[in-house]
Design a protein that fits this description.
about 15% strand, alpha+beta, 4 strands, elongated, two-stranded antiparallel ribbon, binds zinc ion, about 60 residues
Length: about 60
C-alpha cells in the first residue's frame, strides 16, 4: 500500500484546510407566516412548502 514519504507539515495541512469553513444557513421569510426559515426547506412554523401544507404543526 502506498504511503507518503514525508509527514505533511502543519503549514501545508492548515493551508489545505484554509477554505474549509462553516457556512451560515440561507434564511428567508416564509411567504405563508412570515417566520424566518431556511430556504428550500419546509417551514417549521406553519409546516408549508410551495404554498401547500406538507407537515402537521400545532396551530393554536
Ligand atoms: Zn411558515
Amino acid at each position: 500500500m502506498p504511503l507518503p514519504k514525508r509527514k505533511t507539515s502543519k503549514s501545508k495541512r492548515n493551508s489545505r484546510r484554509a477554505h474549509i469553513k462553516a457556512v451560515a444557513p440561507n434564511l428567508t421569510a416564509c411567504p405563508q407566516c412570515g417566520e424566518t426559515k431556511v430556504s428550500h426547506h419546509v417551514c417549521h412554523s406553519c409546516g408549508t412548502y410551495k404554498g401547500r401544507t406538507v407537515i402537521e404543526t400545532k396551530e393554536d
